[in-house]
Amino acid sequence: MEDIIIGTEAVANGVVTAHELRRWYRPIYRNVHAPTNRVITLRDRTVGAWLFSRRCGIVTGLAAAALHGSSWVDTDIDIELVYKFPRAPRGIVARAERIEADEWQVLNGLPVATPARTAFDLGRFQRHDTLGRLDALMRAEPYSTDDVLMLTQRYKGARGVALLKAVLPFVDGGAESPRESWWRRLVIESGFPIPATQITVRDDYRRHVRTLDFGWEEYQVALEYDGDQHQADRAQYLKDRRVMPVLRQLGWHVITVVKEDDPIHVIVRLREAMVARGWRGSIEIPRYAYAYSRHLAELAFRARKLG
To answer: pTM (2 decimals)?
Structure first.
């Protein structure tokens, strides 16, 4: 498949000779080879992992999410398979779990977990950026959270189900990056109402002014996350400078954050803005926000010492 071959099988079938295999191919996994001049992609590694399972494994996790179209998936991730390996090689994570016929599909020649089953596995095993991963999958290939919850009933007591159930109510395909999902989860877990995503703001003439990342239309308060690419785009920077005064004239209070912003400071600013607009709730900042705040402080301290 796509020039990724099982070495011994290809030699036995006359596809290549043993000499050609050694000269023109290199191993991805034990006995699974790709052409030496090929730049190995995530799909190549996924195909290789499936071939290593003797075409019996079913792709799940981040590799499945990428095959469904999810963004923000690195090429060097471990390939997760539902399959029982005596000893999986480095780069493959095998889980000897049940998977029913309605939980996988053939996608471009590969057996891949359905979006709902992929979400079920992502939510249980992705300990970092869990919500971001589920949001990205929802954005690429919408799935029913009810279907995911059905799987939690089908596999009661399965590892990680409690983690999945905790994050599933917050899944929203409107998020455009994992870090945006991180900030949205932080504000929810701090005690703010669940925000809407991708809020369209129009002026008095119904002309489109801006689509805000997430916020509360009732209070006209929003939070915008600017990633590295956004900050490096000069045209976007100038556009932002022009649109922010317009948003203020329309009554919107927009807080812009970057990854270097202290989450505790942001939450305090957000609470002040919400209270000024009539919100009467209370907040309790999660522990991980304090941990990230300390991490930022340590980075700043090291930068000052180096400077």
So the answer is: 0.88
